[in-house]
């Protein structure tokens, strides 16, 4: 709703005309937790230099798409679509903004490249958790369209898809912005890549890679049911659309796979040993039935907490990746009981905390810590990547 208000208030400034080649045409896919924060951030930029860099011409969720068909004034298009897409997402939108009529249609991924046009910088921002969208990443890159994504299904699943994305980037000199996929925009992937560009070799990585699980274990005290905290984390926008993706370790599996591949190891997803927190009776349910069944988590976590507490330890959901001198790699993901003073036991809120050992950081690791989930930080990470495309 705030995006709508901002849009209405800032509409008069939309008269500032920005030439098309001053920025990129942008398609935003997803108007959920993260997509709305992207729209709000874009709306807050209207009339500023940053607002003139990214011109939103297509916004879609799984049901409906709105597109600016005239394409005359990119700055105005950005503002208009910011508002219209909020309406498309189901939020009431009072049509008080003086904008050109927009074309609205059932959502179709085929329409994305058409809406972006044929020339100039073009960017798809993927704020979905959609397999169908992820399978398009390589095809868009092959058309010279840059892709910026919060969704891990592009680089964090099959090695085949990851290779396709890398090859497409190289073929068309297209950029793949992935900062939001691990650490919700923290400078993690960038740091790994920069170390290697300087001749360093990554030896191992260990840390807390899930913002929602960090938040859960930072708040769980064995008194309140764990399931109640899961609902709270979901409502705060920290979990995946299906919180079982976090609790099962699948989301963290994808993240450690993305990190390992960025560290130069072509790890297969199935090579990661994952220990899930989800009991089989919860795993088997359809998505719309899980809320009522979340208490199935409670008893075993209460026991795990009590055992850790007795030993002065803390529960943390940890991902570990390491490779030996021969290049053999292994990775595992699961709940660990760590001594209270252990470096990875620290942190607060949704903090991710990741330690990287390399030839350079052999004894004392490089440690990167900060919020690892949440709509605003993730949207900022996505838009930082989109702006980076234009540098
Ligand atoms: N919530 C967070 O803190 C973070 C989320 N992410 C990632 O961001 C992505 C989005 O997460 P949320 O916003 O929480 O999910 P959400 O469930 O709130 O929103 C997903 C959106 O994608 C749309 N969508 C689904 N299929 C589509 C399609 N074919 N075409 C266009 N839109 C489609 C849905 O309609 C919905 O608007 C996920 O991949 C998640 O892993 C990444 C970092 C942090
Ligand atoms: N559900 C994820 C969101 C960010 O990727 C998490 O909890 O870290």
From TrEMBL:
<dbReference type="InterPro" id="IPR005106">
    <property type="entry name" value="Asp/hSer_DH_NAD-bd"/>
</dbReference>
<keyword id="KW-0521">NADP</keyword>
<protein>
    <recommendedName>
        <fullName>Homoserine dehydrogenase</fullName>
        <ecNumber>1.1.1.3</ecNumber>
    </recommendedName>
</protein>
<keyword id="KW-0486">Methionine biosynthesis</keyword>
<dbReference type="Pfam" id="PF00742">
    <property type="entry name" value="Homoserine_dh"/>
</dbReference>
<comment type="pathway">
    <text>Amino-acid biosynthesis; L-methionine biosynthesis via de novo pathway; L-homoserine from L-aspartate: step 3/3.</text>
</comment>
<dbReference type="InterPro" id="IPR022697">
    <property type="entry name" value="HDH_short"/>
</dbReference>
<feature type="domain" description="Aspartate/homoserine dehydrogenase NAD-binding">
    <location>
        <begin position="30"/>
        <end position="175"/>
    </location>
</feature>
<dbReference type="InterPro" id="IPR019811">
    <property type="entry name" value="HDH_CS"/>
</dbReference>
<keyword id="KW-0791">Threonine biosynthesis</keyword>
<dbReference type="InterPro" id="IPR001342">
    <property type="entry name" value="HDH_cat"/>
</dbReference>
<comment type="pathway">
    <text>Amino-acid biosynthesis; L-threonine biosynthesis; L-threonine from L-aspartate: step 3/5.</text>
</comment>
<dbReference type="InterPro" id="IPR036291">
    <property type="entry name" value="NAD(P)-bd_dom_sf"/>
</dbReference>
<keyword id="KW-0560">Oxidoreductase</keyword>
<dbReference type="InterPro" id="IPR011147">
    <property type="entry name" value="Bifunc_Aspkin/hSer_DH"/>
</dbReference>
<comment type="similarity">
    <text>Belongs to the homoserine dehydrogenase family.</text>
</comment>
<keyword id="KW-0028">Amino-acid biosynthesis</keyword>
<feature type="domain" description="Homoserine dehydrogenase catalytic">
    <location>
        <begin position="187"/>
        <end position="386"/>
    </location>
</feature>
<dbReference type="Pfam" id="PF03447">
    <property type="entry name" value="NAD_binding_3"/>
</dbReference>
């Amino acid at each position: 709703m705030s995006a709508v208000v901002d849009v209405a208030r800032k509409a008069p400034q939309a008269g500032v005309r920005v030439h098309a080649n001053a920025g990129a045409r942008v398609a935003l896919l997803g108007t959920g937790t993260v997509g709305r924060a992207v729209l709000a951030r874009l709306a807050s930029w209207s009339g500023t230099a940053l607002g003139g860099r990214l011109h939103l011409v297509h916004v879609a969720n799984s049901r409906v798409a709105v597109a600016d068909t005239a394409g005359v004034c990119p700055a105005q298009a950005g503002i208009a679509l910011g508002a219209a897409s909020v309406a498309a997402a189901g939020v009431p939108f009072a049509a008080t903004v003086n904008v050109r009529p927009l074309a609205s249609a059932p959502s179709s991924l085929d329409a994305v490249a058409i809406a972006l046009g044929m020339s100039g910088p073009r960017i798809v921002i993927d704020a979905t958790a959609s397999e169908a969208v992820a399978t398009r990443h390589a095809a868009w890159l092959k058309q010279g369209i840059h892709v910026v994504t919060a969704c891990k299904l592009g680089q964090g699943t099959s090695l085949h898809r990851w290779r396709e994305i890398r090859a497409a980037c190289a073929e068309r000199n297209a950029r793949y912005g992935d900062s939001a996929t691990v650490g919700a925009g923290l400078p993690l992937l960038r740091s790994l890549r920069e170390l290697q560009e300087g001749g360093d070799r990554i030896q191992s990585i260990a840390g807390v890679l899930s913002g929602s699980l960090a938040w859960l274990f930072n708040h769980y005290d064995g008194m309140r049911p764990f399931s109640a905290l899961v609902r709270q984390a979901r409502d705060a926008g920290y979990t995946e659309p299906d919180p079982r993706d976090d609790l099962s370790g699948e989301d963290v599996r994808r993240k450690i796979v993305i990190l390992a591949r960025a560290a130069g190891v072509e790890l297969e997803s199935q090579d990661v040993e994952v220990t899930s927190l989800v009991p089989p009776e919860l795993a088997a349910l359809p998505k719309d039935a899980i809320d009522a069944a979340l208490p199935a988590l409670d008893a075993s976590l209460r026991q795990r907490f009590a055992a850790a507490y007795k030993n002065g330890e803390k529960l943390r959901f940890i991902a570990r990746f390491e490779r030996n001198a021969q290049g053999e790699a292994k990775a595992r993901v699961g709940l660990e009981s760590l001594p209270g003073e252990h470096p990875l036991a620290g942190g607060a809120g949704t903090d991710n905390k990741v330690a990287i050992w390399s030839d350079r950081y052999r004894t004392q690791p490089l440690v990167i810590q900060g919020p690892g989930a949440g709509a605003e930080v993730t949207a900022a990470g996505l838009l930082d990547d989109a702006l980076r495309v234009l540098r």
